[in-house]
Structures are given as structure tokens and as C-alpha cells.
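Example 3.2
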Amino acid sequence: MTTGHTCAVAGIAARFLQLRQRTLELCAGLSAEDLQLQSMPDASPGKWHLAHTSWFFEQFVLGRDPAYRPRDPAWHYLFNSYYQSVGPMHARPQRGLLSRPSLDEVRDYRRRIDDAVAELLDRGDDAEAPGLVELGLQHEQQHQELLLTDIKHAFWCNPLQPAYRAPIAAPADAKAVPLQFVAGREGIAEIGHRGEGFAFDNETPRHRTLLQPHALANRLVTNAEYLAFVREGGYREPGLWLSDGWATLQREG
């Protein structure tokens, strides 16, 4: 094993532990009841996210070893999401019904997977493991975003209006830079991944595409601007909405 390869493996091992811990930190202020909530069919409970991201490493990293024995074979069905090639899965809209395994069992599952993956990387005898772990980390970061989205939607559904975190007050003199639209370049452009770093399969192959005339704002919309949109009747003007959005607005009130 070369020095460069050893450093790369050490780097991925450190990132693995850091990002796995970050997922737990996102749940630190949440109760077992919070992490069981599924507020709509397109959302998933936080506990399921914790388990599914661990299942991913178990299935696609550890499971490549014929001698590996899963924590519980029945969990393969519970925590698969849409990977049809590796077997059937529990229906997504019913994930909120999975009171078992418990949150403590799921946390223990994560610890077991973390230890096993760290040991695999430390051994350094599987040349494909670092690349697969990198894929798993990219996948876990996607689920960190989903976990936050899902718990915030669940809290929004609660009449008590609980907050995920205490708000951070903006400075009294905070002011957005003036909004401007910046014209983008036109013509033939190359898009897609190039290089040796990580990329998802849908980011390749690199190819040419035609850029039509367009412009982008130099910053994001502010909360104050969105509030002004609401107060000035933005939710009462169908011409400002795509048809699906307007239909949802009418249905949900």
C-alpha cells in the first residue's frame, strides 16, 4: 500500500466518523417521540433516517464480505428505501408505524455499523471500500438534509408550533445587498463531472448543451421580501403560481 493511498484511507475514515456523528448531533435535541413522527407520505421519521443510512453501509460496504452477518436480517426489509435490485422494502407511507425497533436499538445499530466500517478501513485489505464509503457519506449527507426537512414539517403540523432550534437573532442593522439580476453567458457550454473526485452517476458523462439567454439574482430572497409578498396578496394572485402550486394552495388553504 502506497503512502498516498494510506493517507487517502485515513482521510475517508476520519470523514466517516465525523459525518456519522453529525447526523446524531442533528437529532440531539429531539425526543424519541419526535423521531417517530411521519407527517406526510413523502416524509420519513428521523429514526428511519438514522437506521436507513446505517443499512446503506451494511448492505453496500460490509455486506460484500460473505462472512459478514447482519444485525438483524429482518431489518433489511424495513430500512431499504428504493433499491429494488437488493430486495423488497417496507412501504414508504407506513414508515411512521415502525415503533419497533426502538430508538435505542437503532442507535446501537449505528454504533455497530460504525465500528465495523472503521475496522474495515483500518485493515486496508479491501481496495474498493474507500470509494464505497465515500458514496455512503454522500448519501448520508443527503439524508441529513431530508431529516431536517422532515422534522421541521412535522413540527409545523403541531398547533404548539415547536421550534427545532432556538432562533438566532439577526444584528439590528442587518441589511441585504441591493437585489440585481446578472445576465449569464449564452451559447454552447460543457456541463457534467470532470476529474478524479466524487460524482454521482447522473453527473456524467460530460457533454455540451445550449445555454439560452437568462439572468440570475445576485442573492437569495430575504425573509422580509417573502413576508412582503404574502402581505401584498401573493397568495391570492393565481398569475404568480404554476398550476400545481395554485391547486395545492386552494386545497390546503
